Amino acid sequence: MAKRLFDTDIFIDFLRGNKAAKRVMLSIEDEDMPCCSVVTVAEIRAGMREEEQAATIALLESFDALSIDKKVAQLAGDLKRKTRQQQLELDDCFIAATALIHQAVLITHNPKHYPHKDLMLKKPRY
Q1: Which domain holds residue 26?
Q2: How many domains does the chain have?
Q3: Tens digit of pLDDT for each residue in 12-38?
Q4: What is the biggest distance separating any 2 CA atoms in the chain, rounded to whole angstroms?
Q5: Which DSSP symbol is given to 50?
Q6: How many other CB atoms are found less than 10 A from the CB of residue 126?
Q7: Strand pairing partners for 3?
């Protein structure tokens, strides 16, 4: 089973009604496992409006949220340290580390946030 880790930007586009983002999320193969980082859960909930709460929570609950453990935290710190000159946010390093540890393809519309060479990235067209 291949893991497909969706970045926060894809969730935001989906929740804002972007039809292409919806197609991307719905195009996951039956044998694939759609997931996200717990960082994405926090980011989405932080920006959620009251009237969006039910739909947002239902969407997040339909994905397996991958936790941050010691291995993920250590790798995130290493990624941040090694790419310091690129002004990367620590939350993006946590998402990248989660994808790397879980051998997941990271689906993002912002590949510039993830310059890590071993990371499997997929940028959807839209």
Answers
A1: 2-122
A2: 1
A3: 999 999 999 999 998 887 779 999 999
A4: 41
A5: G
A6: 13
A7: 33
